[in-house]
Design a protein that fits this description.
Layout lengths: L1 E6 L29 E7 L5 E6 L5 H8 L6 E3 L5 H4 L6 H7 L3 E5 L1 H10 L1 H4 L13 E5 L6 E3 L2 E10 L2 E10 L12 E4 L10 H4 L4 E5 L12 H11 L3 E5 L7 H7 L4 E3 L5 E2 L1
Parallel strand pairs: 3-4, 4-5, 5-6, 10-11, 11-12, 12-13
Antiparallel strand pairs: 1-2, 1-14, 2-3, 7-8, 8-9, 9-10
Length: 272
Amino acid sequence: MRFVFMGTGTSAGVPIIGCRCEVCLSPDPRDRRLRTAACAMFTDAHGRERIVLLDAGPDLRQQALTLGLNRCDAILLTHNHVDHIFGLDEVRRFNALMRGPIDVFADEHTMQSVRRVYMHIFEREHNVNDSFVATLIPHVVRPLEPFETFGLRVTPIPLLHGRLEMLGYRLDAGPGVSDPAGVLPLAYCTDVSAIPPRAWGVLAGVRTLVLDALRQRHHPTHLTIDQAIGIAQRVNAESTYFVHMGHDVLHARVADELPDGIMLAHDGLTLG
């Protein structure tokens, strides 16, 4: 198992258009953040390489080219915001390479939004032209009801993003999935402002925690760095990585201030 941080930035990315703050002008490559997304790469029980995307934001094409991705077997969507779903059209290239459809998993609210935004994919019979569009198989999932995709066991985690109910995902190795580096179990919790009481149980025992940490100042729909530290310490994973950071966060400075075992992720960081 390898887990790759494809992007670690907030919805505007970093640097932000037209900004000349110290983070946006930073020469440190860790301060250049595409929109938050990740992928899990593993070998299934039949020895086939699999790639599962976590979200598909507007930077997906650039992220896929940077990583040299040539397949996508499944996509786990956390919620319906633009910075997490507006790259779905790009996966048609993976359809062509693999000559097959791609499974997409999301809760009912997110799936409704995806169907509306991507009518040309899900209602292609109404398209004016017979153009090449992505082929996706939608699967509606529910919080705390596990499912498997290619041997990877996935448990949707109920989270709050302001007033929006959304999903994180816990990933566990199912039969035949090898994880020699000990990345799993992993919980992926981006765009979080609060952890509902019923979510704490599924976070128990994770080895790796990926968690929202927008900035130091309060935000109504995201965790502050201090709030994220508090949650990380309660979960007590072996390693915690913060994501979805804005241009308030200078990597070198903030990373030095974090407790042991808690780190800032950066684009391209690979676990395993």
